[in-house]
Structure prediction request, 280 residues.
Amino acid sequence: MSKQVEFSPAEKAIRSILKTYRKTVWAPFIAAIKEYELISAGDKIGVCMSGGKDSAILGVLMKQLQAHSDVPFDVEYIVMDPGYSAENRRRLEENAALLELPVRIFETNIFGVTAKTDKSPCYLCARMRRGHLYSYAKELGCNKIALGHHFSDVIETTLMGMLWGSQIQGMLPKLHSTNFEGMDLIRPLYKVHEDAIINWAHYNDLHFLACACKLTEAAAVDEEKSKRRETKSLIRELKKTNPCIEKNIFNSIHRANVDTLVSYKLHGEMHSFLEDFDSE
Prediction:
């Protein structure tokens, strides 16, 4: 009688990605890496780990890719503690150990700073986080940082820009840093749906931090009313009558017809359709 093989939580997590969730996680992850040319030989990538489900699966995917890719690259698993509670810090460290991700943790006081502002604390927090992550990654010799933004983030951001920001604006799969020369930001989960990530976490009985922001925890009602939550709900409703709605929104930022736009911004400069109207 053959003995059943016991897998560690980390082994189970990656096996489930390569088997159960191969079509919904691994395949779109690899597709984004290739299509958007996110990784090049010799890269050193700082994978930014926030303690949430998205960055956790990104860490597992990048570890697997590094081990088996034909393109040689290095990885640093970076965790910035912006002032987490002791419980959240412990959960983050336990999950990193469970998934066998050798994280580097560095401290900041971002929560303390943002708690003192009345204007857009979430926006300020995001900007400060990004700056600290770039800076620390550069200290480690990285030329790229990888964030856990996924397909659902992309389409929600696109729709939010139109409905509440009065602009057509996407979320690029990679971009150059404007403040840290030689550093790029990449989004390897660009084609992975959030539902697939949630299903993977549940399958492996993994429990991650949600936001862990002290301001959010103190204002749960406001969070429920956030524009992103409204947008998620809207997309779910639209999907009931149009199953292709998510794919259509995603494809729209790959097929923008600039000839039909009244005005547009290119490299920070506004242009009007009138500029070339009489030359046609």
Remarks:
- The two ends are 80 Å apart (CA to CA).
- The CA atoms of residues 224 and 230 lie 8 Å apart.
